[in-house]
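Good morning,

Both structures are done.
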Amino acid sequence: MTDYGRLISERWKEGEALNIHEEMMRLTLAIVAKTLFGADVESEAKEIGEALTAALALFNRITSPFAEILDKLPLPSNRRFQWARERLDETIYRIIEERRASGEDCGDLLSMLLQAQDVEGDGGTMTDLQLRDEAMTIFLAGHETTANALTWTWYLLSEHPDVEAKLHAELDAVLGGRLPTVEDVAQLRYAEMVLTEVIRLYPPAWVVGRQALNDHAIGKYVAPAGTTLFMSPYVIHHDPRYFPDPDRFYPERWTPEMRAELPKFAYFPFGGGPRLCIGEQFARMEGILLIAAIAQKWQMRLAPGQVVALQPRITLRPKYGMVMIPARRKVGE
């Protein structure tokens, strides 16, 4: 994770504007492909990003009561989605084919999926289609959300130099200019508080859906079986009943005492219950390590004229990207 963070940031030039959202998407895509599937997809990052954007554009369609009808029409949006699906499938199926051909057990997620057996059925292994479905979910969800969280992190740090200064002080004290390792995560407590506060204000999964299997009573209302219910972390995370001054970026609020007193599900950026996000620990570790690796070398400032707005689709993206100007920093500055 930190090696990829170092490599991508070494390409940046001081004072030269860059779209930090695109950079974070490229970075987290490379990391999830390498760590979970042993693949190098950085050269494909631009096309994969475009395909993902085209797929996410249909989010509003999914919740429409006319979705099934609209999906059958020869609309330009449907053609774009078909291209996006085929482009993403091309990458995933190639990764699966290469691993099957090698027969190598790399000890990663893909090897685990290839070796998995249906112990409750015929004892067989996964088909390529089943592998594709599992891999695609992790591949997309495992980078899009983290990229958004990191993008909002650089924006919020640029707007709050006092928080940025405290973060830099911790990084200098703990790391002294070297790249962080997994052993450092427990010592980077303020970095963890920064990440926790970022995904309170801008939860990458801003809405979570569940389907009622049976009639479900909610107060005086009843949701019939089959109803899709939506819960919004974004709404709850901005509720002053749980978070005083809820719109303020204030990492210091995350004290052990505050965490202990917070009601269950007042903070749920990774969902909850039996279907709690399987990648939560992976994402938290990745977020802390990348914040540490990049922030100790770079400061980000919002480019003049950059408009910051929300784009709530499946994930919470910056609507107009996030063009920022990087400046180098030295330990102790």
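Second structure follows.
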Amino acid sequence: MSDEGQAFVDTNVFVYSFDPTEPHRQQIAQALLDRLRTEDRMCLSTQILQEFYVTMTRKVRRGWSAEEAMAALDALSVLPIVVVDPPLIRRAALLARAHVLSFWDSLMVVAAARIGASVLYTEDLNHGQVIAGVQVANPFLAA
């Protein structure tokens, strides 16, 4: 593993990596995921797996079949995964209130912190912001 620490990846990065309707974002997402995979730094949570399944089967323009989505879940399930449990939900609720964040974004941040991620790749939070010891990075900022 790289000296940079774990890198927590949000659902939107995974979705863009498979979504051909935004080729520039797809290219950025694929390059980031390839790099993190090579460096053995990628991690996620059960929340991300759930959101990915729903998004790919119901929300993208050409939705996947359940079988396609399950194959992708199986591939992602080999990564380090934070299980969303009641203590994590409580921490997320407190963080959401303290930082005026959505609950779902807070849940992602506390999951990243729990696994020891140094960075959270997402387009949903402010690039460069540090929350609960995790730095937010938007890989699509210049996209």
